[in-house]
Amino acid sequence: MTETYAFLNVSRECFDEIKDKLVEADYLLAFQYDSEGRTIVINMRGLALRVEQEDELDNLIEEVGEVGGIRYERKRRGLAER
User: Fold this and answer.
1) Do residues 70 and 64 make contact, with C-beta atoms less than 8 angstroms apart?
2) CB 28 within 8 A of CB 20
3) Which string of b and e fits 17-43 if b means at least 16 CB within 10 Å?
4) Which of 8, 51, 71, 81 has its CA 20 to 30 A from that of 40?
């Protein structure tokens, strides 16, 4: 099966932190070669990132705005609109 994806370049520190968590969880299927076979990428299909501490959600909302899924999720949880 051929799969296409967009590349999101991140710092080495960010890549390593994600890599370490995936290895710890034994989620090794996420590691692949890029389409040219030159470098390892992390294919995050089916994975979602979240902050480790729930109280950081409000800071994130201020940074990215209450859009799409965030607005829906706040309503679902009964949280007041800002």
Assistant:
1) yes
2) no
3) ebeeebeeeeeeebeeeeeeeeeebee
4) 51
- pLDDT tens readout for residues 25-82: 999 999 998 888 888 999 988 888 877 766 666 666 666 665 666 665 666 676 655 4
Note the pTM of the prediction, 2 decimals. 0.61
Would you say 40 and 31 are in contact if contact means Cβ atoms under 8 Å apart? Answer: yes
CA nearest to 25, candidates 17, 33, 34, 37: 17
Angle 82-74-79 from CA coordinates, rounded to 5°: 65
